[in-house]
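input
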Amino acid sequence: MKTLPQTCEQCLEEFSNALEELVIFASRGDKSGYTETQSRDLIRNFEVTHELALKVIAKFFEKHKKGPFSGSRDATVEAFHAELIDDGKGWLDMIIDRIQYNPVYNIDSQATFLSNIRKKYIRLLERFERTMTKKLEE
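output
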């Protein structure tokens, strides 16, 4: 059975749900601290949310006959130029943090990554959600 491709609006809804879960999960850990397992779970939750944000960006550009892009960096730069995101450097930092956290690289970046997720990246994702909601209502 063939499935219909998701619309940009459906992708945004899926992203919004993941972001809501990420915010709840992050706030729980802020109160009681994070175990090693909770830290890994928060990072995984963030990575899923970030991937869904990139999917929303891709669908938005597909809808407007732009792209495809060769990777998340190109899509992020284009999203910044199209004013879908308001902090291009912050979004590129997200990508770099995800790359550095990858177990392939021998860099102990978990503490920094967790701090950035809680203090920076969730806010950037929330602003993206508001922007995209407005753009899709236009």
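quick obs: The radius of gyration is 15 Å.
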